[in-house]
Amino acid sequence: MRRWTPLKIRALKGKEAFATVTCYDATSAALIESLGPDAFPLVLVGDSVGMTMQGHDSPLPVILDEMVYHTRCVGRVLKSPMLIADLPFGSYQTGDDDGFRSALRLIKEGGADGVKLEGGERCATLIRRLVEAGIPVCGHLGLTPQSCLAMGGFKVQGRDAEAAKRLIHEARILENAGCFAIVMEGVPSSLGKAVTEAVSIPVIGIGAGADTDGQILVWQDLLGLTMGHVPKFVRTFGSLGTAAQAALSAYRAAVAERSFPAREETYE
To answer: Which of 40, 47, 1, 48 minimizes the C-alpha distance to 21?
Structure first.
């Protein structure tokens, strides 16, 4: 059993803001684990893997088998944070039975501690069924990437009063359905604060302002590994992409001038 559980994460509500992060592979999971058991209460294997690891421009092509694979890779190494896996597009929109079976696969085959899904009222019956079966569920509202076609892209949500009111209502629905936390993405900071105050479960923001209970960022974005457009809400906390380019260039030059491998790197 991992150190962090849904009950412990719920207990963080209203306390010092906590950080969470996405993760897709064992090497990254080992780095997270090396920071200690209390560094990150929750780690998400997101369907953002479609954009960060697979080269797609949205999460829509990601399939359940791929989510099971990446979750298994992370879960082999991760010991302390609660491990949550996304239900990918198409794995639960076709009905609650499909959603239930998909969640079971992420738990049984992937080793996840819980699942995350996008949507409010339309997902309430599935969430209740999962929770009743003992599967922790994290909700996701606001800018829901799996709805990028209907939204016309990755656009800020909840800008007008009616839309904001609806999102607050749906957050309460998710809480009542049994979610232990909610990811709130791509909304005005005032709405992020209002949703956080409207529910008794933690709200984890990504592009939702500083007043949510926690924050989550994509691994590649925060480390400076993203090549190309980075969303406005991202702060780059490292320059690993630049460092990697420098290392690759130095390696290529060392091979070209035959200084690598050196004698100490050669078997006699």
So the answer is: 40
Please answer whether residues 79 and 85 qualify as being in contact, where contact means their C-beta atoms are separated by less than 8 angstroms: no
Burial of 153 (0-12, 13-18, 19+ CB in 10 A): exposed
109, 185, 264, 268: the active-site residue: 185
CA distance 238 to 177: 38
Helix axes 64-75, 26-34, angle to 10 degrees: 40
Phi, psi of 73 (to 5 degrees): -60, -45
Give 48-111 as a DSSP string.
THHHHTS--SSSTT--HHHHHHHHHHHHTT--SSEEEEEPPTTSSTT-HHHHHHHHHHHHHTT-
Q: What is the pLDDT of residues 112-122, one digit of tens each?
A: 999 999 999 99
Q: Which residues pair with 86 in a beta bridge?
A: 116
pTM over 0.70: yes
- Residues 6-65 have pLDDT tens digits of 999 999 999 989 999 999 999 999 999 999 999 999 999 999 999 999 999 999 999 999
**Residue 132 is among the residues annotated as catalytic for this protein:** no
CA distance 57 to 86: 17
Q: How far is CA 118 from CA 31, 93, 149, 223, in A?
A: 28, 10, 14, 26
Rounded-to-integer distance, Cα 217 and Cα 32, Å: 13
Q: Is 188 buried (19+), middle (13-18) or exposed (0-12) by CB count in 10 A?
A: middle
CA 208/CA 25 separation, integer angstroms: 27
